[in-house]
Design a protein that fits this description.
Oligomer: single chain
Number of helices: 18
Shape: globular
Structural class: alpha+beta
Helix content: 25-40%
Radius of gyration: 25 Å
Largest sheet: 9 strands, antiparallel
Length: about 625
Amino acid sequence: MTSTLRTDVLRIEGAGDPVGTLPILHGIPSRVADGVGIDAEMRRNLAYGAPHSLLPYTRQDGYDRTRTERELPTVVLENDVLTATFLPGYGGRLWSLVHRPSGRELLHRNPILQPANLALRDAWPAGGVEWNLGTTGHWPLTCEPLHAVRASAPDGTPVLRMFAYERLRGLILRMDTWLPAGSPVLFVHVAVHNPSTEEAPVYWWSNIAVPQAADVRVLAPADHAFHCDYVSELRRVPFPAVTGGEHSRDHNRDHSYPGRAGAAADYFLDLPAGERRWIAALDGTGAGLVQTSTERLRGRKLFCWGTGTGGRHWQEWLSGPGSAYLEIQAGLARTQLEHLPMPAGATWSWVEAYGMLETDPSAVHGPWEQARSAAADALDLLVPAEGLERALALAGQFGEPQEVLAQGDGWAALEIEAGSFAPSPLLPFGVPGAQQQPWRHLLATGTLPISDPPAAPVTGARWRALLEEGANDWHALYHLGLVRLADGEPDAARRAWQRSLAERRSPWALRALAFLAATPDEAADLMAEAHRLRPDLRELTTEVLDALLRADRAKDALAAIRALPAAARGHGRIRLAEAEAAHALGDHDHVRRLLAEGIRVDNMREGEVSLDTLWLAVHPDRPVPPHYDFRMSQG
């Protein structure tokens, strides 16, 4: 069979596409780590590059858990060994990788498409291989469309090229994937380009979900790992014989078997210099997925949810019953808490390979040194390291696009018009769309058209210069504040928003000023006024309730809830706020009633413990019911 590329459709039970209106004003704090084994390089990378905000992105929290049959466009690469299915509409995710001779699915192919609040913008679906560029967390384009085109290798092998402009860091991403005839591995060439004249902090992790079972062992060429268990600090420990923290129930277990772990944990495997870069998850038969790469992709990680009540609940929340998974991951740095400095104008590239690894099961499940050596030998037979280097060189010869397969957004096209970077025939970014039209008008005339709600945000020096020169109405001044905040200038942002309010009292500028408020009371007052101007906007309602509760104004929060329409009061976040307000006022009967009726928070955050904390506050003598237990640190 020759190598083929085709478009297709994935039919799946899924929730609707996540939507959102409000810009994400907060950033990510810099990390400071002085745990055992943290060296100077890691300390420097942990402290470097944390973004001041997640602008220009908006939240994506407008989803629920009502699923219907959906049809999602796919692109499929196939040869006689593998079938690889990609979702260009969901960040280019590799959704499925099937080993054709055995019929085995190598990835966790989620039977449902259910967003949950695990990404930087909130919405995130589990499963497959997710590509992450930007900053610590699941990347901003995980639920966004990428551009996709057909290209070709010099010998005619079809190539799927997906590409995007990542707006937080201002980076251009290009991914070329191909399956040569007879190849036992899928090749993925990744190139990240910094078109700016300034250094950019860079983060990349390929997150690979694979089926979890008690006999699945994760192997990599490492004897130590940087361990994070969501309770204790990051520290370097022996692997796989990792001793848990003081709160862990996983003392002295073999942590290379994540299906036996009690609690959620990250193990950033510390691959020594000179070792080949790879990680594998192999089952009791000695078979499973292996991922390997060229040298630049340095880090490897094992993540597991754990087998405690909270971990099992998260698995079902994301994938339904009976669909447990773990993740093996690969990144530029040693941990996901680090950023690396990328010089102006630089391009970093590497090749990853994915396929089925098979070796002697008695070796795989024997002593650690024997297991990793057996896997390494099998990998050398599957795809030698020289094969990856040849693939890296070959990717530079791939031609221009021959056919458009999927359209991404119009932000790169807008930046090309603005002169932020030059167009490339290899990456046809198309033309700006409806969201970009206000900014095209600003480019052409020096004036940003007024709209309510405001235009989608932008950031960057070009846009700031235009707004600094021409902003004189409430809408342009609001956006001027956003670009100043993104540049790490909160005082300058505040002045712009105060000027915006002097022109018109808008909920948008009020919300922004509340973010910079000096006290919880000041923030609550500003948010309450914003809510009075837009009482119909559920995103804003949940934020004002949070602000009132942080200011210890539970009575005001309950009054705001009672003023809402009945349908709005039934939203999970609002019911949770009602229960928290009642608890703050000592009305435990009210809390117990709400919990008995049911509180389902569709966008429960990863690591959030609000529901189980609330339950234990009013039922101190009763265990947390599984449907309220999202605890990641319990055994």
